[in-house]
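R.M. (postdoc): so does anyone remember the format we settled on? I'll just put the structure tokens first.
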């Protein structure tokens, strides 16, 4: 696709979480008069890419159709206002479509190649954030889950029982996968809670207690892990262990995926800062 002014811009993003918007913390920045601060979030899980709309003003389009959350196929076309973004996935580990110097390390992770075709100037945050980003950590951190108690959306006994069984199976599957992806563990807790609520609605007290116990146990474990990762991040920054800090930032971002909070913004800024510093160290 050719535009009236200039050709396509290319951006290679090394991350399993790519935020697109006009905010300074976004991996891909668009003009503020055409995009919200956080407009679209692209995430990678199990080799697949997914797009989630963070703002509907204006509504983002995927291959010409409005969406709120959808899988991304190869060369999918995202449209945000007057900006068009073609997303392609390439495996850096196999060196498909990417040429790197022999001295540069090759990541085993999947990269996303975003080809931005926009008629306006492209605003991409490529500069190294100021040092005060390292010291700007918010005093408060968000909770992993909302405090609202789980409610079963089904009132009829048979329907409530069916939903309870469905939520139970889904939660158990996510709990099994949680050692490999912490996002599954975080997502399992509200599913266990909803299973408990639906079992109660169906009159199955013992099953409800079992599901609530599973939710409480997993919640306690994840909250302890959450605090431990925060402490390790602070310590690794204090001792300037940037590699460990980068790992902790990525884990915390995964645990807090989907939350709009100053702490998440700080983590995103920190992730870019550490990536730039480590990249500079490797090149040196």
């Amino acid at each position: 696709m050719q535009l009236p002014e200039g050709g396509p811009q290319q951006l290679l993003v090394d991350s399993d979480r790519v935020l697109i918007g006009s905010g300074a913390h976004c991996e891909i920045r668009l003009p503020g008069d055409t995009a919200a601060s956080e407009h679209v979030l692209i995430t990678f899980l199990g080799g697949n890419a997914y797009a989630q709309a963070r703002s509907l003003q204006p509504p983002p389009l995927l291959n010409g159709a409005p969406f709120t959350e959808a899988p991304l196929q190869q060369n999918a076309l995202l449209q945000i206002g007057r900006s068009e973004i073609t997303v392609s996935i390439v495996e850096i580990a196999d060196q498909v479509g990417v040429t790197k110097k022999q001295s540069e390390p090759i990541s085993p992770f999947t990269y996303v190649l975003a080809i931005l075709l926009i008629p306006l100037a492209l605003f991409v945050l490529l500069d190294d954030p100021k040092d005060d980003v390292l010291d700007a950590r918010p005093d408060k951190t968000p909770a992993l889950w909302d405090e609202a108690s789980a409610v079963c959306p089904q009132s009829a006994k048979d329907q409530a029982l069916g939903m309870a069984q469905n939520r139970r199976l889904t939660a158990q599957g996510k709990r099994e996968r949680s050692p490999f992806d912490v996002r599954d563990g975080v997502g399992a807790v509200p599913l266990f809670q909803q299973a408990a609520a639906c079992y109660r609605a169906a009159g199955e007290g013992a099953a409800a207690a079992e599901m609530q116990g599973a939710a409480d146990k997993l919640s306690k474990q994840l909250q302890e892990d959450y605090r431990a990762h925060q402490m390790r991040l602070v310590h690794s920054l204090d001792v300037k262990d940037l590699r460990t800090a980068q790992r902790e930032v990525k884990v915390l971002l995964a645990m807090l995926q989907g939350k709009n909070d100053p702490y998440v913004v700080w983590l995103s800024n920190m992730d870019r800062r550490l990536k730039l510093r480590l990249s500079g160290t490797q090149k040196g």
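R.M.: ...and that's the designed sequence above, right after the tokens. Also worth knowing: The longest strand covers residues 83-91. The radius of gyration is 21 Å.
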